[in-house]
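Form 12-C: Joint structure prediction
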Amino acid sequence: MDDHEPIYGVEELAERAGVSRRTVRYYVQRGLLPAPLGVGRGKHYSQQHLATLVRIRDQQAAGVSLEDIAARRHGVTLAREPTRSAPLSTASQSSWTRVVLLDGVELHLRGRRLSETQLEQLATQITRVIEGDAP
Amino acid sequence: MTSEQQTGLIAASGAHPEAITLKSVSVRARVSGPCVEVTLVQRYQNMERVPIEAVYVFPLDEAAAVCGFKARIGPSVVIGKVEEREQAFARYDDALTDGDAAFLLEQERPNVFTASVGNLLAGEQVELELRYVAKLEREGEAVRLNIPTTVAPRYVGKAAPSVGQPDGERVNPEQRDSVPYGLQLAVEIAGRVSSVDSPSHPIRTRLGPEAVSVELSQEDVALDRDFVLLITQEHAPGKRGANAYVAREADGRRVALLSFAHTLLPTPGVGHEVIFVLDCSGSMEGSSITQARRALSLCIRALSSDDTFNVVRFGSSFESLFAEGPRRFDEATLQLATRYVEQTEADLGGTEILAPLTQVLRTALDPVRPRRVLLLTDGQVANEAALIALAREHATTARVFTFGIGASASAYLVRGLARASRAASELIFPGERIEPKVLRMFERVRTPVLDDVRIDWGGLTVEQAPSELPALFAGDELTVFARIVSGAASEVRLHAGGEAWSVPIELERAEAAGPIPTLWARECIRSIEERSERADAGQHESGARATRPSERESARHAQLVELGVRYQLLSSATSFVAVEERTAEQRSKQPAQLRRIPVALSDGQGERRGSSGGHFVGAMLPMMMAAPVPTGAPFTAGPPEMVALAHGSDMDTSAPALRSRVEVPRASTAREELLDGSRSLLGRALGFLTGQGSAASGSARDEDEETPDRLYELLMTQHADGCFASSEVLLTWLGSERVARLAAPIAQHGEAIVLTAVVVWLLAREAKDRQAEWRPAVSKARGWIAAQSTQLDAASLMDG
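Section 2 - Result
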């Protein structure tokens, strides 16, 4: 892990993700978001926390149930739901997968189904590149 | 039965009762005039080996002004302070993160609250004490004290996606058939009381010279139904006319309370368009739907031929009796409606009130008949605010009268809808007599109201709450609060219906204590909250970050915070928070595990209760409204050993009527094999005596509402035009000897005229004590008789 990776207090984390502190606590309690690092007053959240938080927020805002989000908590969270938000083109509707990677970054796959493992690998790679800690 | 059997415990289904952190709830209430002050203590103990955060969702009276909160841990007491809701949460969250003890009390709805007990260490105990004051609702000559105990499952419709904890989840705690924690309750009523009556619980009453104290007959009862107490005070303050009381705040500011009651004469006006809207959702199953059917049947029969009406029933979807719209009330439509209501079951699924109510309110108005909506529901929905906003939107064209039905109906929805549309509401607890409530309500529906009440504060500049005065119905009381900003006056004037009343007001004699300032602030908070555009009271984060609260919404929030902080009151925008800082060693090192406290299922909800009925053998003595009451006999049903009557030495007047009708289940730890042999024998014997047969057992819960009541049955045979035909109930009531005497007159004059005259005579003679219930039917019957060519003297017919 990078020494210069930013860390956040809960207030700042919530603000950056555009959610309330109440929501941060709720996600942690539901096991959607990992507990903060450190102990006592030193508790803090990492960049990874922020990314996860933003993903959960976006998925919940898009109408994905918390159960579905929780079911896919490990690794990258997926949202397969062509009915809720229509894909850009109507071509090849047989399959459409949307993966929320980070705030503002989404991966859309159309007409082709990847396994969850493949998706996770792909998404992890892309996340690394964007976050600049690619090898 | 041996003593071992009596003390046997019955475990809550599927869980270790020991694991539940909440141990007990106790309530102390003090009623003084029309106000009540309540202290509620929740006792928690962490029975686990890890630190926990306990979260308990519980109800309070929807009128409650929650004004005190403290936590007791061992010897130390931490006093809660009111802060803006999110700030309070942040303080609580910080304290939890630091490992300190923290306590948070939040409002989810005006009648649903959440207590969070943070970082309770292994084995640690804490008592949360909260205090509220409320103004009691008047009900006929009595005031109604309502202490809700459980949050019934609420129907949550499809909502727009939101971020964070879904609102429906916040107001829907886990429901269990029974929970191990129970309720203890004591009520003290100041002043002279002429009667107390609890339709919900068996009570013990002790009379003193200047106060009456009431407690539950059982030690530890289940929190599965509201506690209801109807109190008739000897000198009910402000009985007729207008009265003013003034209180002084700590900084010298004065707040006035003005109460006004007026005897309105019911004058038959024009006909009305009456739309009955009946909740047939699953939550109404059991006694609620039975009561609703009964109430509805009585309402329909009380209509007059000038009225048009329709019946709408709803669940997940809705349907109308007359698809083409309301129809004139006559014999044909009465029969159709009666059949329709009889066939109604609680089988229409979810509780989507919004759609049917919207349609009813948006339909084109009748050009001459004012629209009256009568809604019968348990109100167990999560979108109360949207419904109240709808009623408010249509307040100029329709009044929505509401019946809240069930052991834990949502008083917030039921009262809120009526308030918003300038109508009135009644709560009907299972087993309470419906007829007087229905008829009282129907008098309000059909008689003119004082819609123009106005207060001229003279030389005073005031902040009046509510700022728009509600309509005043026959028999109701108006209460208005005003904080005095400046000026002086020795009287204020109240104008209504072309008349004016002068009310002396003594600013100098203002009392330094009392709940009036708090109630003023609570009324202001309610006005602000019920006018909110926001879908619901809680703080919601909508899906898109762009949706910021509107400017008006922010202003409302600021107003709520100002009021809440100044008067230390809970609201949708303010919460109580208390933090106990711990020493470094005491601080909890592990994160607290969340424990949501399960709550007891509300009684009377479908078969769930029926299936567990075997747990409380003999628990129900069905001697409620359904029991035929012998003429002239006092209505003092209930097993006599449940009522302990101790006269205070100075008590010189006759004993108040003490009524105690039902025995209720206990909390599951205390749920013993109830009642020893002699007692249940007595219970059964009493059941037989009152015509209930052997139905005096727990499993008879749902049947007891349907046990025939001959007055009700007789009234149900009246035709739309007012006449009575021959019926089994009438013949049985008269008895064969008297029936035989009628043969000749019937042959001579015809059946209808003879029987109608006989019913009028019979009711006046043998059901005098229930005159309030049959008065409208008899006046209709008299009208019919007057229109006939033959006139009969039923008295000489029957006696001679």
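Section 3 - Comments
Chain A touches chain B at residues 10-11, 18-23, 25-27, 29, 35-36, 39-41, 43, 57, 60-63, 66 (CB under 8 Å). Residues 2 and 133 of chain A are 8 Å apart (CA to CA).
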